[in-house]
Amino acid sequence: MVQEALEDARKRMDGAVTSFRKDLSGFRTNRASPALVENMDIDYFGTRMQLSQLAQISAGDVRMLVIQPWDKNAVNIIAKTIQQSDLGMTPQVEGDRIRLNIPPMNEERRRSVVKMVKTRTEEAKVSVRNVRKDVREYIKELEKESEIGQDDSKRAQEQLQKLTDESVAEIDMYSSEKETEVMQV
Fold this sequence. Notes:
The protein is an alpha+beta fold. The chain has 2 domains: 2-24 and 106-183, Ribosome-recycling factor (Topoisomerase I, Chain A, domain 4), CATH 1.10.132.20; 31-101, Gyrase A, domain 2 (2-Layer Sandwich), CATH 3.30.1360.40. It contains 5 helices and 6 strands. Strand 5 (92-94) and strand 6 form a beta hairpin. Helix 1 (2-25) runs parallel beside helix 5 and helix 4 (107-144) packs antiparallel against helix 5 (150-183). The radius of gyration is 21 Å and the shape is elongated. 24% of the residues are buried.
C-alpha cells in the first residue's frame, strides 16, 4: 500500500515537473522557437485547440517564426489570438501563412519575463508540495488505522520527502536555465 502511494506520488510529481517544463518552453527568449506559440490555446470555431494542432510551426531564422495553418480559414483567428496574447508581438498575415518576427527584448521586458518564470516556478513547487501533503496524509491514515507500523510510516515519509526534494531541485534547475536564457542579450 505504501509503495503504491509513493509510486503514485512519484508519477504525480514527475507530471508536475513535465508540465512546468512545457510551460517554460512558451516563455519568450531572444530566439525564435516553435515552442513559443505551439501550446497557445486557439478558439477554433467554438473548440479550444492548441496551435500545434492547427498549424505547422517552423523557425524561419533566428528571429522569425512561420505559422502555416492546415485550414486557411484559421489564419485570421490564429493571428488575432497571437495579437491578443502577452507575447508582445504583432503577427503579419501573408496569404495562407503568418510570419511572426521576434524583436529583441529590452531590459524591462526580460525582467518581466523572469518575474513570470519565477511565478510559474513557485506554482510548480506548490503543486509538488500538494502531492506530498496528500500522500503524507494517506500514510498517516494508514498508521492511525494500524495498517502499517510507526517505523514504516516514518520511513515512507522520509522517502516521500526525498521525492519532493528531488522534484523541487529539478524545477529550480529548469527555472534557473530559463532565467539565464531570457537574460542573454
